[in-house]
Amino acid sequence: xxxxxxxxxxxxxxxxxxxxxxxxxxxxxxxxxxxxxxxxxxxxxxxxxxxxxxxxxxxxxxxxxxxxxxxxxxxxxxxxxxxxxxxxxxxxxxxxxxxxxxxxxxxxxxxxxxxxxxxxxxxxxxxxxxxxxxxxxxxxxxxxxxxxxxxxxxxxxxxxxxxxxxxxxxxxxxxxxxxxxxxxxxxxxxxxxxxxxxxxxxxxxxxx
Amino acid sequence: xxxxxxxxxxxxxxxxxxxxxxxxxxxxxxxxxxxxxxxxxxxxxxxxxxxxxxxxxxxxxxxxxxxxxxxxxxxxxxxxxxxxxxxxxxxxxxxxxxxxxxxxxxxxxxxxxxxxxxxxxxxxxxxxxxxxxxxxxxxxxxxxxxxxxxxxxxxxxxxxxxxxxxxxxxxxxxxxxxxxxxxxxxxxxxxxxxxxxxxxxxxxxxxxxxxxxxxxxxxxxxxxxxxxxxxxxxxxxxxxxxxxxxxxxxxxxxxxxxxxxxxxxxxxxxxxxxxxxxxxxxxxxxxxxxxxxxxxxxxxxxxxxxxxxxxxxxxxxxxxxxxxxxxxxxxxxxxxxxxxxxxxxxxxxxxxxxxxxxxxxxxxxxxxxxxxxxxxxxxxxxxxxxxxxxxxxxxxxxxxxxxxxxxxxxxxxxxxxxxxxxx
Lengths: 208, 423
Hints:
By secondary structure, chain A is mainly alpha-helical.
């Protein structure tokens, strides 16, 4: 019977294959044991880890070497940032980047102006963000010295560091932001007020 | 028109066709045209001519008559590279969002990424830092799960003085698909998280290098490293080739184009969790790490920006409900401005952290009224009224608006947002 013969051949082949693969250490197994923890993926090179590891912690960990002054920052800002944020970071009509300066004491007024100066809790976030995302049209194009310098300038425009300030990994981590304690860490608050009333309920307030 | 007349009409046409056939080819054509005209809509053109061949086109697209069912961008941002577009909720059925209609929110455009070049690195406080190719990722055990994703800025217009004119704009930063991917806990197991590891920085490979801090608890719970969306690869707008998905959490945290996960001992305080995506309270303090999207529902038909066509009579009220805290328990609908509420029918068993479709038949008597829906989730949380929400949070909160949305029905059947100017 040709059918049976074919089957036999297939079975024999499978047995040979199984024996061969077991010999080479590739035992077939299904289920969870099929993937062992460290089988997949490879170890990143030191170069790769260094190049990719760009985040700056709020305590200043991972800030790179280099430095920049307020006056150097002013020059860089004028040529690479001002077109979108205004000459002095004031933002305004037609500026695609928005305001980076001012808004002091506005957070509780009902008309808050949230800027680096009035709202941001950490100066390290300024370095991290400008380095990874700005200028908007050429992200990651600035050197550490340039990022330190524009950070110094934006902080100076907000009256947080003096005119002669120089930012580096020591000084930037020490800058105290005005709104440092302005945040309460919590998950979304549950409102318990509204009940699932079914009959004779208070109508929805649809006044503007 | 009765059925008998209908059949008679076709008969008449057919008789004429048969008569024409006896006169030769060109007459057949004339007779057929005459028949089509005579029969009019009784025999549609689609039955008189052959249709399109297969693979026209190879990747199928909606009917040309659905051309208005599209995402629409906000007009509120100064650049369309950091901007958003809304899902047309008013045109969708069920709970699944088609991939081409999934809402968008990018902070510096949609990157073009070759999956063969893409890598995901996991490092920081781990025993074995590892880099995964897409092929590596796809060899891990995977799952498919249905979850919604909602931008925490969805409905932000409703806090302020300019509420949105239609449901697409007021609620359309919301979509729901079937995601396929590897549990993040599986990958964390592979790298071995050190005991001090409490937060994970997730970073995207886009021009914003988008970053958020993810609490370890969530990472080990239901977080997914997703590469599939409704059965196909992720769309570029949704993070192709791979993204993070944190079910029930604000959309921004589900980092797209995921390239790096770094385990740390504290939150990283990125710009997107300090300057943005924090909720300013009236006393000037801001809530931070408000991750969960709380229960919310909205009627999508009839909905603001639309119309009840054809006057008074039966109307099928239908909408969607969801909760980042779990399953929808029930949805109540009011057709009298909130004075009384009826429990709507839910389509099937609600899934956790997914949209649930609700329906309620209604007989509209033609008089102006206000309709609204209100969800209760499995934790017992009841969707708040706008008044309750704003009295607790003020108007500068911006994110996480989840209040009941009342739609006004006008005498002419026009449906408007009850809070919008001119409504």
